[in-house]
Write the structure tokens for this entry.
Amino acid sequence: MLQLDRISKRFGGVKALDDVRFDIRRGEVLCLAGENGCGKSTLIKIISGVHRPEPGAVMLFDGRSIEGLDPAAARALGIQVIWQDLALFPEMTVAENIAFESNLGARPRLVRYGRMRAAAARILGRLGVGLDLDAPLRTLPIAQRQVVAVARALVTEATLVFMDEPTASLSQAETDALLAIVRRLSAEGIAVVFVSHRLAEVLEVCSRVTVLRDGRLVGTFPTEGMTQTRLTELMTGKTFDYAVQTRDLSGAPVVLSVEGLSRAPGYADVSLTIRRGEIVGLTGRLGSGRTELALSLFGMAPASAGTVTLEGRPVRFASNREAIRAGVAYVSEDRLQLGLVQPQSISDNTAMAVLDSLLGPGGLVSARRQDALVHAWIRDLGVKAGHPGHAVSTLSGGNQQRIVLAKWLATRPKLLILDSPTVGVDVGARAGIFAIVHRLAGAGMAILLISDEIPEVYFNADRILHMRDGRIVGAYVPGETGIDAIEEAVHA
Amino acid sequence: MPRFGIGGTERWLILVILAMGAGLGLLTPSFLTLSNLFDLLNASAVNIIFGVGLLVVLVAGGIDISFAVAASVVQYLTAMAVARLGGGNWAVGLLLAGTFGTLLGCVNAFFIHRFRIVSIVVTIATYNLFFGLLMFWSGGVSIYDLPDWWTTRVVILGTETAGGHAELTLTVLVMAACVAATWLLLRRMSTGRQLYALGDNPEGARRVGVDVGAMHTLAYGWLGLMAGIAGLMQAHYAQEVVPNALYGRELDVLAAVVLGGARLGGGRGTILGVFLGIILVAITQNGLNLLGISPYAFKMIIGAIILAAITLSSEGAGRLIGSWRTPAMRRAA
């Protein structure tokens, strides 16, 4: 039904997609697999008309060329996308979100609220979900918004539906319901492209899997006979020779000790310790309270109950400024928005958190001291940068992440919190970043590694904590508990 | 949004207006007379026309502060055009004022969309540009010899009451038409829903295929149209064209519209809210006058009311207590 060939896309200097081929048949359930930043989202945006591919691309729908596709034309072909960030309208009602399609089109016409409600009710009935049609979307919890997003994609005659990580924040029961819907769509002749990190799910529901790595096509394979291990190898390009790297650090002094820490809404009754040189992995689904916990440890979201002890002294941070002074560093989840000032230079970004220590005579920032500091970190972390004066936005994802690390390492922290450090970083650069992390741990830094990719914590942490609904519900030691068992526990 | 339901902000404003009305009625005998209430409406009509136009831009996620001086430019252009046409009449006047206003609005839309400049920056620039051009070119000179049709009061409804002569003027009729047209656009037309969508989630709207350029043109063009008509009616009400008569009006209107529940940043706001916000400000002013309080206190009191209203509205109160949405929810939104 849909055939694409020679698809490339550049953003600035970065090649997001390089000569990719893709095809899907009517009624097929296909999986698009690959690690973060491999080009999945870009490919979806090209097929849905949001981005144009570079010249030379071939795009055929039922044998006809569909070059110059825009979002409206893609929808006219029945191509629907459920975006990972849902792209819904929080101020509008459930009914209007689902049936918004009827408001589109260049010719103005009267809004038929009655019809919109009827259409929304019909589609929710088909999904077997009951929602208040008149409730503003912003009042709904995230799992129900997900349902609204699915319903919206189905409200018109769809031929091809993309689901970008549709199950990332659903419970097992909700996921099963969704997979049942996917099968029903397939039986109706609607093709579904499924993007998911949860490989078990992928193998269960899809007939073929297309694997991308670093913007290139690895290949398209039938799922029959495919194993999770083999799929992971295809996605990462590495035979998993990663070994579990646990060390026994029970004799090392405790750096961070947390007792019964709570904050509503967010997390409740969290207790954990991290010792000198230890890497503790914290995993759990989106919305499990991981980030809120990290922000509390960093003084940005005060806890309502419980104690935090840092190197034996009880601490209660009123702001992140105090936390930084006490030796806590936090590399945020959203590197592009929160971690770096993109238009500023590499040098200024690196020195941002330690300007106080660079003051020269007269209380002004000494350029000489800043240069010395920046050069030292660029060399130490192996940043591939043209000149420290260039804007940080000119760097690749992996090198940007190193600059964020450098910024925080310059504060000489005792405790380093890494929140999803490899999101948007390509596979090669990940290994480099984790090499740095292991070196820091070797030098005695206590590290809290937050990630929703289980292999990432499994092969890097000494211990793994599992968080769900704001509570720590499991503690594992990699090697003693198998990776599959942990995957199962987290995604259950 | 329930189909014809009234939102929390509007309900709250109605209560405040009723309470103030009752209080003023007790304190001053002249407040609750038909002639005073009609005068209140006559005097507020121009601001309401501005207000519903501005609402369209706010709902679409933009802001415009150039519309009031644009209305002054329209007054001059229309006065000169009708003079050249040998007098004109209401139909010609409305057509000309509407056209000039729409064109000025489209200038804003062009820069905002074509060059992706933030709307407040563009409209600060055009605010200065329009006003500077007007002062330079008119030499600051007012026009008093307007055609008779423009300056003669048109009474559409007049009655004798015990409290004196009470009448509604043409300005109120034009306002009613502008309010009805804007309501139709925002509530009942598909394009209006696209405007809301654009303000609510710009990236989401782009992805479902809303034509962002067309929406910008519509929003700023519509405000221009309303501003042009409001300018015509203001000159009618004042019976003269003074270049700086509307200078500063943009912030009064903006404050009243925000008081009515429109959200800076887009996606939220109702016609009823605009109406109530402007009426509340007008009643406050009227009441202060009738109570003999210094007009210098007026701005201070309005400022305090707006601060109180915005702090006490549900979201503001939530923010005072603590974060009401978790980061995960915000990301999902």
